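Is this the right way to post structure tokens for a design question? Let me know if I should format differently. Anyway, here goes:
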């Protein structure tokens, strides 16, 4: 695992210090420390760490609310560290988008797998988001091309295959995307 830049958000200074030491012993770098959730969000936005490790129970803003804000801003994954393992808190953490959940007391041997899981899940989510965006772009293009084909079929008496080939050929000849050709055909048809 690569060396991570980590923000630690924990209201108990002793636990924060222990966590910092554990992280540094295994090769990670603590780039920021916060004693409350609001400070954690502000630090994460400013520093852009690879990971935030946050306690649930903190003043000003709890760790789950802070995690939600950090995740909404797409800054980095959040690992929740807590002494509480109630089902409600675990579910709330899951809804917030937390990537891993570690119950205190913990050892260094517990922390490393939790970090690895958090980082792996975050990469999977990012990969899926990228794929969804690609699919959405493809779907939008297909809708536009289908509309343009319909216009060509109606106005020029072409078959669907001929209309598609016409759009494809125009795209290749003009060296612009089929989506742009389709938009041009749709706009030209609106002007009529």
């Amino acid at each position: 695992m690569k060396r991570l830049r980590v923000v630690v958000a924990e209201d108990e200074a002793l636990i924060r210090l222990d966590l910092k030491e554990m992280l540094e012993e295994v090769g990670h770098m603590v780039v920021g420390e916060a004693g409350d959730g609001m400070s954690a969000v502000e630090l994460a936005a400013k520093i852009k760490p690879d990971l935030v490790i946050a306690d649930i129970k903190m003043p000003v803003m709890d760790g789950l609310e802070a995690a939600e804000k950090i995740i909404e801003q797409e800054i980095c994954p959040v690992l929740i560290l807590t002494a509480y393992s109630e089902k409600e808190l675990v579910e709330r953490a899951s809804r917030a988008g937390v990537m891993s959940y570690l119950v205190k007391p913990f050892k260094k041997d517990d922390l490393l797998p939790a970090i690895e899981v958090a980082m792996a899940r975050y990469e999977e989510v990012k990969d899926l988001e990228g794929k969804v965006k690609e699919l959405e772009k493809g779907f939008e293009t297909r809708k536009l091309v289908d509309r343009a084909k319909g216009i060509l079929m109606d106005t020029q008496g072409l078959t669907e295959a001929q209309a598609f080939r016409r759009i494809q050929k125009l795209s290749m000849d003009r060296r612009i995307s089929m989506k742009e050709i389709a938009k041009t055909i749709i706009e030209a048809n609106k002007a009529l």
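Format looks fine. Someone answered above. Worth noting: Residues 132-191 form a domain with the Arc Repressor Mutant, subunit A fold (CATH 1.10.10.10). The chain has a mean pLDDT of 87.
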